[in-house]
Design a protein that fits this description.
Length: 146
């Protein structure tokens, strides 16, 4: 489904479905991309800053959210936002964001001469994921449903 998969997956040795231990949603390391199992508690509380970084994909997946109440003068970035995932929307988030983000780290590493460490960091991985999301949405919903 991913455009230019051969280019982006060069040097990729395996995809791992992790057990969800150790925090985070996924990781990458020298030819390995891991996506963790979703926590047993399907709803997730995120700091508002993290929610805003991922708001577009959550809206596309139609994940209902409940934002903590704050006054207008103190827009607290650490206030919690409850994201009411379902198994279907959690899968969508893992595939349409986490996987693409970690693939972005892998591809960033492969663009360097020694292929040991990526140069672009988190901003590169986020930009990479966002660049692929638009062409993938229609395909994703066709395969996995909306």
């Amino acid at each position: 489904m991913i455009p230019s998969w051969a280019k982006y997956s060069e040097g990729l040795k395996c995809l791992v479905l992790g057990d969800g231990e150790g925090g985070g949603y996924g990781w990458h390391n020298l030819g390995v991309v891991c996506i963790h199992a979703w926590p047993s508690k399907i709803e997730e509380s995120w700091p508002r800053s993290f929610f805003r970084e991922h708001q577009e994909v959550l809206e596309r997946l139609m994940v209902p959210v409940v934002e903590a109440q704050t006054d207008d003068e103190n827009d607290d970035e650490d206030a919690e936002v409850l994201c009411r995932f379902t198994p279907k929307t959690a899968r969508g988030f893992l595939l349409m964001h986490v996987f693409l983000h970690e693939l972005g780290h892998h591809y960033d590493r492969m663009l360097t001469r020694k292929r040991r460490r990526g140069a672009g960091g988190e901003s590169h991985a986020e930009d990479f994921a966002r660049s692929l999301v638009e062409p993938l949405w229609e395909r994703y919903f066709r395969v996995f449903g909306g």
